[in-house]
């Protein structure tokens, strides 16, 4: 029946179109589209900025008889890459100790702590070092001191063994591993993780919107008019597509903004060694799995919407939406460790998990094509099954509206409609 | 060829029988009243007519053919519980509903505007539905049911909540539609609203058909033995042997005559006794009376439990 097919597609698209435009035109949509990335961006880059710029700037005192050690530490701490501290060099004496203690407890003093270096018993032995701090929580300063001390001691010993400054610099220079051939695994992981959360958020956000939209129609009783021309399957499919398109629009706006941002060079951290964190294929898979994920979770939401008559009832049932997502979250760690294990492969083939986990695996490892196809097939079948189930529940549910169905009732509904 | 033909349809929800062995025909160019108390199966019957549910047994034919969803493009439906998208503009809403019924966007738009003008709500076209009064929303829903020029118009309680002026406006539209040859089905428990307009009726109670046929036929089965009078002067004619009982009012009286007695005799008798008669009217039984009589009888007969609106 080709004409019937065209006709029902026409209806699905009409419903979807209405849903889309009515949502996109709202102020809420505009606000969410602009504000969410703004807030997220501010948070992420704010914290990155803080991390980069927050060199330790505390004021400390180093008490030592070893002048060269003291001077080198002072140099490292005052002009180093991580620290821009103010360092006082003092010679040990009881008077100094009591003076420093007094400063440490004085409110108007800036002294964050002092390092008391007692030389070792033999020249080869390491010195004993004690640190007294104003606040035990000032870990950054303590760490900076520790790092500096270690470096200085090492240098000293190496020099004592006859190495030149050049040799030492070469020895202590950080090692760089070129990963450009296989891609930056750390970065890929970060990207996968980001996508995972993006997907999680959008699914939760828009999945619930689908359910709400269905409940809205029940409360406003428009469905009676709609069902006088179209079938529940068409109505539900239209809703899922329409609300989904809104989600896609929003996420595309965000993605475009992110790319524009990355491209503008404002976020050099997003690119590593000239490789984009997210490859083109990854974007493709992300979009594919996002679409499927959205469709699956929206159809679950549609089923929930079909079963309930109010927002409150929906709240009680939304665990059906959350549980699979939480399961995915739990699975992400074993998959991260061994993306090719049987557990990972099975979990990523479960239709409710595929959108998140298969996508995650694809970004971590080489997933055989048949697994990808299988996951797509399973997801498609699941969506169709949920949709026809929801349509039945919906049809019978609205005919007997007013009371919440019990599980045996829903099972019985399956039989007649 | 009847527009709607129901043949022994039956529908059961769980243990509750909603409609039992109902048969009826609705003809072209007629107004049909589907009457019955709340819960008598009117809405279930309509839902089976428009394919929202499928009867457990029996047949539904529309336009002379067994029901198929394609035929729904020729049906206009105003549900009892009105529903419109609250946040949507009236015009957008009407165009959307028109397109769902198979109109193209341009036709849907021009018809929406024309209808809104006809029903005197043209100024609401660009407003959101939630800004409108209930009566206006009802008119919009009414338009939505007629937008695609359906051959079968199904109206579930179309005038509830409308003021008399607007109810008349909508009634005029429906009469006009009947003249154009459309079949119109009213479902209501308000007999007085449909009495003057319906050509035929079906009376439902507890899912069963109590009575059906053309209005004239049904009414002719009931004796015209009630007289309403407005008069001044001598009241002694009320003791005429033809009068069974009477009720006296300030300005007149309501009489019930013995069966088979001519009202003429009473009138002549009154005139002869010098009563000054302003009005003398032989009353037809109202639909409401017939309805109440039947429903009472049916509840009396079948006292097998189950509330009226169960």
Automatic annotation (TrEMBL), chain A:
Q: Name one GO cellular component term.
A: plasma membrane
UniProt cross-references to InterPro entries, sorted A to Z: ABC-2_transporter_component, ABC2_TM
- Residue ranges annotated as transmembrane are 28-52, 186-208, 240-263, 283-305, 317-336, 372-394
Q: Which superkingdom is the protein from?
A: Bacteria
The GO molecular function terms of this record are: ABC-type transporter activity
Q: How does it sit in the membrane?
A: Multi-pass membrane protein
Residues of the ABC-2 type transporter transmembrane domain: 27-390
Q: What Pfam families has UniProt attached to this entry?
A: ABC2_membrane_3
**Does this UniProt record's set of keywords contain Transmembrane?**
yes
Q: Which UniProt keywords apply?
A: Cell membrane, Membrane, Transmembrane, Transmembrane helix
State where the protein is found. Answer: Cell membrane
Name the predominant localization: membrane
Under which name does UniProt file this protein?
ABC-2 type transport system permease protein
Q: What is the lineage of its organism?
A: Bacteria, Pseudomonadati, Acidobacteriota, Terriglobia, Terriglobales
Automatic annotation (TrEMBL), chain B:
Q: What is this protein called in UniProt?
A: ABC-2 type transport system ATP-binding protein
Q: Which GO terms describe its molecular function?
A: ATP binding; ATP hydrolysis activity
What lineage is this protein's organism placed in? Bacteria, Pseudomonadati, Acidobacteriota, Terriglobia, Terriglobales
For this protein, the record's PROSITE patterns field holds:
ABC_TRANSPORTER_1 (PS00211), ABC_TRANSPORTER_2 (PS50893)
Keywords annotated in UniProt: ATP-binding, Nucleotide-binding, Transport
Supply the InterPro entries for this chain. AAA+_ATPase, ABC_transporter-like_ATP-bd, ABC_transporter-like_CS, ABC_transporter_ATP-binding, DrrA1/2-like_C, P-loop_NTPase
Cross-referenced Pfam families, in alphabetical order? ABC_tran, DrrA1-3_C
Record-annotated ABC transporter domain positions:
4-231
């Amino acid at each position: 029946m080709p004409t019937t097919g065209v006709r029902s597609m026409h209806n699905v698209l009409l419903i979807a179109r209405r849903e889309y435009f009515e949502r996109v035109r709202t102020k809420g949509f505009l606000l969410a589209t602009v504000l969410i990335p703004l807030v997220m961006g501010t948070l992420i880059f704010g914290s990155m900025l803080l991390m980069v710029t927050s060199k330790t700037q505390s004021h400390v005192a180093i008490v030592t008889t070893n002048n060269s050690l003291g001077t080198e530490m002072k140099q490292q701490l005052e002009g180093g890459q991580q620290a821009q501290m103010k360092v006082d060099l003092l010679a040990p004496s009881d008077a100094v100790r009591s003076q420093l203690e007094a400063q440490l407890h004085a409110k108007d003093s800036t002294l964050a702590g002092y390092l008391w270096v007692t030389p070792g018993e033999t020249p080869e032995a390491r010195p004993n070092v004690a640190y007294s701090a104003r606040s035990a929580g000032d870990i950054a300063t303590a760490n900076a001191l520790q790092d500096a001390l270690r470096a200085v001691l090492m240098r000293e010993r190496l020099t004592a063994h006859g190495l030149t400054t050049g040799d030492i610099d070469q020895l202590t220079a950080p090692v760089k591993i070129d990963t450009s051939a296989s891609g930056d695994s750390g970065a890929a992981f970060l990207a996968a993780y980001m996508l995972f959360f993006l997907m999680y958020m959008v699914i939760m956000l828009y999945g619930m919107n689908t359910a709400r939209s269905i409940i809205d129609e029940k409360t406003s009783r428009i469905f009676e008019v709609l069902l006088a021309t179209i079938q529940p399957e068409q109505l539900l499919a239209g809703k899922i597509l329409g609300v989904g398109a809104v989600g896609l629009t929003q996420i595309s706006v965000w993605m475009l903004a992110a790319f524009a941002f990355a491209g503008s060079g404002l976020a050099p951290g997003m690119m590593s060694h000239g490789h984009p964190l997210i490859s083109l294929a990854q974007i493709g898979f992300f979009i594919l799995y996002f679409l499927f994920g959205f469709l699956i979770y929206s159809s679950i939401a549609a089923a929930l919407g079909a079963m309930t008559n109010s927002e409150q009832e929906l709240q009680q049932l939304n665990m059906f939406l959350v549980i699979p997502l939480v399961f995915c979250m739990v699975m992400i760690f074993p998959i991260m460790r061994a993306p090719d294990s049987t557990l990972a492969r099975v979990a990523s083939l479960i239709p409710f998990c595929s959108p998140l986990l298969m996508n995650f695996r694809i970004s971590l490892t080489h997933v055989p094509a048949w697994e990808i196809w299988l996951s797509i097939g399973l997801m498609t079948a699941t969506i169709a099954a949920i949709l026809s189930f929801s349509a039945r529940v919906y049809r019978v549910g609205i005919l007997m509206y007013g009371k919440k169905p019990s599980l045996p009732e829903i099972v019985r509904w399956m039989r007649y409609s | 060829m009847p527009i709607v033909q129901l043949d022994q349809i039956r529908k059961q929800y769980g243990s509750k029988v909603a409609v039992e062995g109902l048969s009826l025909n609705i003809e072209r160019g007629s107004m049909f009243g589907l009457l019955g108390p709340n819960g008598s199966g009117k809405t279930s019957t309509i839902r089976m007519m428009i394919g929202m549910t499928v009867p457990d047994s029996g047949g539904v034919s529309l336009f002379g053919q067994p029901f198929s969803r394609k035929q729904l493009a020729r049906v206009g439906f105003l549900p009892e519980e009105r529903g419109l998208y609250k946040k949507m503009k009236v015009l957008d809403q009407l165009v959307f509903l028109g397109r769902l019924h198979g109109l193209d966007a341009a036709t849907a738009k021009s018809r929406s505007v024309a209808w809104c003008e006809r029903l005197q709500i043209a100024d609401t076209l660009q407003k959101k539905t939630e800004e409108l009064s209930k009566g206006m929303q009802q008119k919009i829903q009414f338009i939505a049911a007629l937008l695609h020029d359906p051959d079968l118009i199904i109206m579930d309680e179309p005038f509830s909540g409308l003021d008399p002026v607007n109810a008349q406006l909508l009634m005029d539209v429906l009469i006009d539609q009947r003249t154009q040859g459309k079949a119109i089905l009213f479902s209501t428990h308000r007999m007085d609203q449909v009495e003057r307009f319906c050509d035929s009726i079906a009376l439902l109670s507890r899912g069963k058909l109590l009575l059906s046929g053309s209005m004239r036929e049904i009414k002719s089965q009931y004796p015209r033995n009630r007289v309403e009078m407005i008069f001044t002067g001598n009241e002694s004619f009320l003791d005429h042997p033809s009068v069974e009982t009477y009720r006296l009012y300030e300005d007149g009286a309501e009489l019930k005559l013995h069966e088979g007695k001519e009202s003429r005799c009473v009138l002549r008798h009154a005139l002869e006794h010098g009563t000054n008669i302003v009005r003398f009217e032989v009353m037809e039984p109202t639909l409401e009376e017939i309805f109440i009589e039947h429903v009472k009888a049916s509840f009396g007969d079948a006292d097998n439990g189950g509330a009226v609106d169960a």
